[in-house]
Amino acid sequence: MLHNTSTVAPPDGPGRARAHRPRFALMLAIMLALMLGASIFVPRLAIAQTGVVAGIVVSASSGGGVPSVRVLVVGTTTGAITDANGRFRLSGLTGATADLEVRRIGFRPLRQTVTVGATNLRFTLTEQSVALDEVVVTGTPGGQARREIGNAVTTVNAAEVTERGTVNNVQQLLNGRSPGVFVNPATGNVGTGARIRIRGASSLSLSNEPLIYIDGVRSNNQAASGPANQSFGSSSISRLNDINPDDIESIEIIKGPAAATLYGTEASNGVIQIITKKGAAGRARWNFSTRLGTNYFQDPAGRFRINYFPVPRPGGPAGALDTVPINLIALEDARGTPVFQHGRIGEFDLSTSGGSELARYFAGLGLEDTKGMEPVNGVKRRTGRLNVNVVPSQTLDLGFNVGYTNGNITLPCEAGCGGRTLGVVNANPLNLVPLANGAPNPRRGFNSGLPTQYDNFYEFYQIVDRFTGGVQANQQLTSWLKHRLNFGVDRTREENSVLNRRTEDSLTKALLGTSGLGFRDINQRTINNYTADYSAAGTFDLPRTIRSTTSVGAQYYRNYYERVCATGSQFPAVGITTVDATTTGRSTCQDVEEDATVGLFAQEQLGWNDKLFVTAALRADDNSAFGRNFDRVYYPKFSVSYVPIESSDSRIPYVNALKLRAAYGESGKQPITFSALQAYSSATGPGDVPAVTPSTIGNPNLGPERSKEIELGFDLGAFNDRAGVEATYYRKRTVDAILDRQIAPSIGIPGTQPFNVGSIRNSGFELSLRGRPIATRNVEWDLGISYATNDNEIENLGTAQSVLELRRQTSCPGYVPGSSSPDSCPVADFVLASSGSLPPRHQVGYPIGSYFTPKIASATVNPNGTVSNVLCEDGK
To answer: Between the CA atoms of 447, 448, 454 and 460, what dihedral angle is there, to the nearest 10 degrees?
Structure first.
């Protein structure tokens, strides 16, 4: 009897994905109920106090109302956000007057004392090319104003970007909006993501992705997840794109160690802070948006090269060849079977926000149903978000944030298995030659099988179920002391599947051999990130107009990873798709990894006359992945910011603002979990007794990679704030980079050993130009240009002395690096692990992952078409 517990996948996606739809239906019902309930009941809640102020915020250039402006009562947590028309209302105020602060990204903040009871206030905001007083998240309570920060921080007004143009995912929000941030797409398929590099790659063996925070909760930042197997892989799905862009208020990009010291170990590649939308006091405001369109390959016939192959000359002498071109795109179009299709784009978003002075809310639902340019490529993603802020008093603000994503992504068979793109690239005219019996060649010019055969045979999909939730408390204890407490969890469940169906098609069986009998690989992963964060800041006014701000904080982060997989080959019959039904090569696996980081920081900032700011900070981190002989690590930071010119005191024509800045900071990257530990594998001992055998040697002295960066730059506003310039030079050096070295067989433990020895340098220049040539009530024209360079070079892969010391540490346990060692210590047992001779490889003096290949200087082409006397550039 054949055992089969799965269903055959429907044409539009994997059958397994249907198991998640009831869960999403329940989530949808709950979210809709919460949205309706919040819009009905929350506005009725009110603080017992009845003092009210209300009014409108308008733009100085256009005169129109400005939405999404935060109006805050100074010294309290009481505030409101303006509606689509720029109107706001605050109640529950005490006293005869109140100090209001009005802020929005891109505008000069305004502070004004108003009379409690006034309901016809009018605030005029001036757009600002250099937002010196804009508050950004820095790890300290309440953040810091830009004028105080000595490093470059980019803020993306996501709400405005999504409102003005089409944005399909978060990576599109980042791309091109911050110099030095490179978004490198993996493929052109829908559902796939991109790798993000901030100021270049700085690690040879660890991840180069930046940290991701969502409302203060550290989140899964994996850039290459998804189905893959040994022969060919996809692994191009980014977790960053699980987040609905329509739920995001703003994104802050913190670049490099000089800016990310307070985030400690793991932050050397930069930090991306995602701040989701919050509600504003007032009646419920509903918003529905949709994006419809098509995905297509523009001019594929003109973009793919025309292949030329030698083929036998019809009727010619033996060995005579003709060079024949082939353009598969044109051939398939003429045949009526185009290689690529037009796939629909369908995105739908519904949100509501509102509340009272006691409680404010934002709730949103999103649906994405999109097809790619290949028939088997598609995305079905459902998202939900609920943010609630409760203000029980004027000094306390409680926030509750919940985000949920559920969906499935189907991918085509890509590199290595003859998918549509590779089939066109490797088009072969020999496969157009009729068969011996005169029948048309069934391959139609494709190098192996037809695209439809691969579509029917292979199935790649990922199902994701993700939850992100957090609780934040911000309290103004006194006029000079405030603190913040934050807890959160980011939980991801993935099911990644590679299915090769059994086929009885004769041509497919001939192409695939035993692979045509089928294969199934299922990989289920759980990734949990836990965050606990506390910080406090005290502000004191000293003599000579000096203000001191002292901040302290502690963080605890825990990462949990679990993988369960099952693999099997050769299904006994067509339509059987479960691993349990396979007949050969069946195997299972389970991995669990867990690490934790505890960090403490202290920061002191002195500000003089609100123009000169000097900051010094120190962070201490301990991580469970460090070797047992490695103690905690310390990361210092120093920065200076000086604002010699502001709009009110400018003495230089056409210059409205000028900020000079310099910063130095250090950060790190922890080793891979368990890499410092000596590990063992199960084995069968003598007499079939269960036993263990060494699998990895570990390294008790293993520590983090450390990045040290210096940054210099300036921000300039000119022409009545219609033009802005941001320029930055940076030089970053990563030391103690982790490499693997081969272990001598005489040790008795196979494999390699990690150790800290390498160094990498990154340096570059970043320039951002912004302008607003036209700004009227009805028309605005914004221009932006970004330019960035990055010079990446490997400086060291381990000198002879450093390798010698590490060898001695292993061979002589009592040896201390840097001391004299006994002659009996063997030094010839170990060598550096080879980086390989084929591209890409790491080599001193060249960028990480450079490609090397011999360059031919000359050669002789013989009359029969063969090549001889090939001479390379090196003379060999």
So the answer is: -80
- For residue range 361-370, list pLDDT tens digits in order: 999 999 999 9
Q: How far is residue 781 from each of residues 129, 154, 164, 786, measured CA to CA in Å?
A: 14, 21, 12, 17
Structure tokens at 732: 């970053």
d(CA 108, CA 111): 10
Residue 69 near residue 137 (C-beta atoms within 8 A): no
DSSP string over 588-650 = EEEEEEEEEEEEEEEEEEEEETTTEEEEEEEEEEEETTS-TT---EEEEEEEEEEEEE-TTT-
> Across the chain, which distance is largest between two alpha carbons, in Å?
106
pLDDT under 70: residue ranges of the chain: 1-50, 77, 228-234, 316, 414-419, 507-515, 648-650, 799-839, 864-865
What token pair was written down for 475?
Answer: 């309290």
**Distance separating alpha carbons of residues 544 and 611, to the nearest angstrom:** 13
Rounded Cα gap, residues 319 and 249, in angstroms: 69
CA triple 444-446-448, angle to 5 deg: 115
Q: How far apart are CA 400 and CA 279, in angstroms?
A: 12
pLDDT score for 544: 84
Report the run of H or E that residue 221 belongs to, with start and end: none
Closest CA to 256 of 626, 726, 668: 668
Q: Which of 152, 182, 180, 181 lies closest to 259, judged by CA? A: 152
Q: Are 424 and 304 in contact (CB under 8 A)?
A: yes
DSSP secondary structure string, 698-752?
--TT---EEEEEEEEEEEEEETTTTEEEEEEEEEEEEEEEEEEEE--GGGS--SE
- Rounded Cα distance between 850 and 840, Å, is 5
- Bridge-based pairing of strands 51-59 and 87-93 is antiparallel
> Residue 118 has which token pair?
């006034």
For the record, the structure tokens of 749 come out as: 């433990």
What is the rounded CA–CA span in Å between residue 102 and residue 124?
Answer: 9
User: Parallel, antiparallel, or unpaired for β 867-872 and 307-312?
Assistant: unpaired
Task: Tell me whether strands 655-669 and 248-254 are parallel, antiparallel or unpaired.
Answer: unpaired
pLDDT given at position 835: 38
**φ and ψ at 252, to 5 degrees?**
-115, 130
Q: Cα separation of 718 and 728, whole Å?
A: 18
**pLDDT, position 350:** 94
Segments of 501-623 assigned E as strands: 519-542, 546-569, 584-608, 612-623
- H, E, C per residue of 836-873: CCCCCECCCCCCCCECCCCCEEEEEECCCCCEEEEEEC
Could you tell me the two tokens for 622? 């301990």
Calpha distance 580→654 (Å, rounded): 74
Statement: the pTM of the whole predicted model exceeds 0.90: no
Nearest 5 degrees, angle CA 194-CA 136-CA 264? 65
Q: Which residue in this structure is represented by tokens 């040896």? A: 815
User: Per-residue DSSP letters for 469-485?
Assistant: EEEEEEEE-SSSEEEEE
